[in-house]
Amino acid sequence: MSENMQHDWKHWRLRREDGGLAWLELDKADASTNVLSAEVMTEFGRVLDALDAAPPKALVIASAKPAGFIAGADIEEFSRIASPAAARALVERGWGLFNRLAAVRYPTLALIRGHCMGGGLELALACRYRLVVDEPGTRLALPEVMLGIVPAWGGMLRLPQAVGPATALDLMLTGKAVDARKAKRIGLADDYVPARVMESAARMMALAAAPARRPPLQERLLRLAMNGPLRRVVADKARKQAAAKVSREHYPAPFAIVDIWEKHGGNALAVPAGDPASLEAIFDSPTAKNLVRVFFLQERLKAFGKESDFAPRHVHVVGAGVMGGDIAAVCALRGMTVTLQDQSVERIAPAIQRAARLFERRHKGDARQVRFTLDRLIADPEGHGAARADLIIEAIFEDLAVKRSLFAELERRARPEAVLATNTSSLRLEDIASALQDPSRLVGIHFFNPVPMLPLVEVVAGEATAAEVLRRATGFVRRIDKLPLPVKSAPGFLVNAVLGPYMLEALRCVEEGIAPETVDAALTAFGMPMGPVELVDTVGLDIAVAAGKALAGSGAEPPARLLKLVAAGKLGRKSGEGYYRWQDGKVVKTAAEGGKRAGAPAPAVPAGLAERVLAPLLAATERCVREGVVGDTDLADAGVIFGTGFAPHTGGPLNLLATRGKASALPG
After folding, report:
1. Which residues contact 468 (CB under 8 A, 6 or more apart)?
2. Which pTM value belongs to this model?
3. What per-residue confidence (pLDDT) applies to 491?
4. Residues identified as active-site
């Protein structure tokens, strides 16, 4: 009889083998994913009580769910924390329980398959051994910094002990995940094994009761030196790493992580109240509240498409330019057969070459996997794949007449049930669909450049688009692991409709004599990932002109300098010069924010500059909600954050206006 039958545990199952090994499995009730809710943690304390009363020879902790090990703390509960005292109590509970686990005398092993995040990894770090399953879904990370908080259940103490301070700080400051093989390589895991032998391997490792893994001698000596001046050196380097990406004002958590490790040995409970790194300061910060909001916005986007079982096996892409080629590559990465059509093989070849480089990065140099993925991406200049595809995506240049002619031909060749999609960024779907015998088949699936990196995809409904076609398009976007945002057909949809006025206002400032570097410095100081002038250069000055009046508002004229640069062939990054010079795809700036690279001092930013440039973006976002382009304010914030990189610490443009008031929403 399993011991779990003798206890009233709801989430944990304990069974003992005749040889003395105990298996403890987490299976959070009424949930598809394991999270460490208050109830789960309270019950874990009772499990430890039972194990104290009858210690096993060794203990293996695993997940009973196929979805993964443990996703971390319960973010829903975290979002309801009402006071700094409640936050401290939450930390004390996790810190105490995991310290208890770490102190038991019998060997403990975490068997990790699938995601192991946040509190889940902190639990695993409290075990003597960690055995990870070598398969694509296995990922280990402490991503708390992405929620504006710190890994306070022992992660800041034990991760540096496991992998060394420099590696640990890098992982904690970025929140990035490692796979099974890298976990072994850096010392986070004792070993990795295939799934078919994971249980027997866990049993052998736990019962062998070997001493916990010791780092090499050189690493141990280095860690001893961390008790002296070297600790400050490592901490200062980590602070500089954080400061190169974010400001302490907007993102206090990464700086708090460094402070807590350096000054308090990773124990957040030891930081006195009033210290900027204290739990009270971190948990009560607007940034933490807003980043949790962003997390839930992302979860809402992920939920779109769940009701659709549409999983296209064959995708046909027309247009092998940068956008179309990258769409095809992303689909191939997700296991789909893709035919890529353009006027000739010579036009398709650069897209295949670019895809091969992407596949090498994603498959980490695994030549076999790269070849398999490339085999799914087929050059198809004649367009034969259109007749077999489940989904056809048009990604050619923005010419209405050409698109209409193309779709009339595609409709004749495509299977009756195939989804017809356009990647148009500025044309009305109704105008394109008028060329079809059945306009209800056309849907917009609008990607953003660079496609492999940017998570958002707008799913555009025209006036005639059928509901089932929309569901299929949304389901497809989730199948390629992107975030679908439902929008209605309107000039620029949401993202380009708000970016157009924003970039135009920035260029007007340059027209008035403000240096492009100064404009960009004002907006990156606010928290944008890239300045608007650099963004124009990146998008292409010719594209900015083409988008023009439709996206910038009625009566808007392109700035004279913009037109002059385009006439001279200075189109930005792709030509090597625009508002900036570009070398090897990198912008060259002489001052301000970008001048850090050139060593130039940053000039003073005029008061109110960021507010002025952002005002049209905020107004356009409000207008898109008011006109029904996007369903509600939350979806508008989600779209602008994930589609433009709008400063996440604000919780989105409309959240910024709502929480601070329009008069004081932005830095002056």
Report:
1. none
2. 0.90
3. 87
4. 425, 446, 458, 496
